[in-house]
Amino acid sequence: MTNTVVAKFASCPLLYPRIPADRRILFFQRDRRDYGFLSNFHHAPIRIDGVDYAGVEWFYQAAKSLDQNYREEIRASISPGKTKRLGDSRLESPQIAKQSRFRKRPELLRPDWNEIRVPVMKAA
Fold first, then answer.
1. Is the pLDDT of residue 97 over 70?
2. What is the mean pLDDT of the chain?
3. Are 102 and 108 in contact (CB under 8 A)?
4. DSSP label at 65?
5. CA-CA distance, 77 to 83, in Å (whole number)?
6. Which of 44, 49, 70, 102 is the most exposed place for a label (fewest CB within 10 A)?
7. Whole-angstrom Cα distance, residue 38 to residue 28?
8. Which residues have a Cβ under 8 Å from the Cβ of 120 and sit 6 or more positions away?
């Protein structure tokens, strides 16, 4: 990172990218290189309830179902984009839902998903 700020915390230097002049971080566009770590798609392994995931997107998509086969398929997905497509529950658009596991088997989607999705994301 060429545009960084060095800060000291507990005598340990940390590097932070500079905040853009407009004070907006657009990690999905202009600021992807410096702020991509803020994206759900960022590869950052996490362990939740003793289960390892490649990152937040994998955990979030796996949480949409209680079916263990579905969850394992999500965990094994090689990219965050593929993971999102496999777990996409917005079935109103055939283009979006083409790869979704919920398209052919809507019963896989947790009935309480709309109520728990925000707490699931906060946990991640």
1. no
2. 83
3. yes
4. B
5. 6
6. 49
7. 9
8. 59, 60, 63
